[in-house]
């Protein structure tokens, strides 16, 4: 028993000096391993009487359990100490300023679309939408665009491969679909992405367009002029905006016109709308062609109407003095900090 007491005392002494997991592992091997002090004591059991074996074996187990218990407690102590050290190393100084974050902004195009919708809703229009993948009928034929028209050519229009269809070149197809299902009076706008094979500083293969349509009895060109004047005045926030109407040609309207607004281009930094002596083309419009009305089942002898279309990117660039159309689609967050809303 005296030897076991000495082993126990030696263990307690050496355990008090353990300061890390390596030392703890070595200590466990010294007292409980295959060549440990306790194993040496167990080797003596073979030379003892059964009664002595029982007594010594009990004492050895008591010492062994004591060692295991204290090793386990020491391991927990070291684990807690290690955790405290890690937490201290990762401590947060609450007096430091917090981390900044990037705040999102509304894209200028989205802002323009929302603004246009609000203007036309106040004027009594409803907003409708349609598919971006169109068929020939709704994108061309129903709009009186004949088969030889340049817009139908591969270099202007994106045609689908392996399936029939094309990426719509304008939102006019939405108007055709609406007129096929609804009888006058009609007063709608449609907006969305459209696609044409073109790319430079003022054109992109994908852009946004808004078109308006009014169909009813005794609708005339004067109604069209009043509608456009009110829309442009509200959008550019110019009460007396000078406009110039020029005769033009569109297959789906007759007569057709293009509208210029007065502006000042004397400085390269910005275009001042409603000022100066320059003119700037802004949109196209006209009275709905009678063939278009017939194609959708509306009697042109009873109903008349007008339509107009405008590029949303163009309006956005003019209103917010954005010089290059392509920057609208590059996704540069620094640019959004300047032009976003």
Helix content: 40-55%
Q: Number of helix segments?
A: 11
Low-confidence stretches: none
Order of helices and strands: HHHHHEEHEHEEHEEEEHEHH
CATH architecture of the largest domain: 2-Layer Sandwich
Distance between the termini: 86 Å
What is the tally of beta strands?
10
Biggest sheet statistics: 8 strands, mixed
Query: What is the molecular shape?
Result: elongated
Key phrases:
protein biosynthesis; alpha+beta; two-stranded antiparallel sheet; 341 residues; elongated; Phenylalanine--tRNA ligase alpha subunit; 10 strands; single chain; magnesium; ligase; BirA Bifunctional Protein, domain 2; eight-stranded mixed beta sheet
Question: Explain this structure to me?
Answer:
The strands form two sheets. Strands 1, 4, 5, 6, 7, 8, 9 and 10 form an eight-stranded mixed sheet that branches. The protein has a two-stranded antiparallel sheet with strand order 2-3. The chain has helices at 2-15, 21-32, 37-43, 50-89, 108-122, 136-139, 172-181, 221-236, 290-295, 312-320, 333-339, and strands at residues 126-128, 133-134, 166-167, 186-195, 206-216, 243-250, 253-264, 272-273, 278-288, 304-311. It has 341 residues and is α+β, with helices and mostly antiparallel strands. The termini are far apart. The chain folds into two domains: 2-89; 108-339, Bira Bifunctional Protein, Domain 2 (BirA Bifunctional Protein, domain 2). Helices cover 41% and strands 20% of the residues. Strand 6 and strand 7 (253-264) form a beta hairpin. The model has no long low-confidence stretch (mean pLDDT 88).
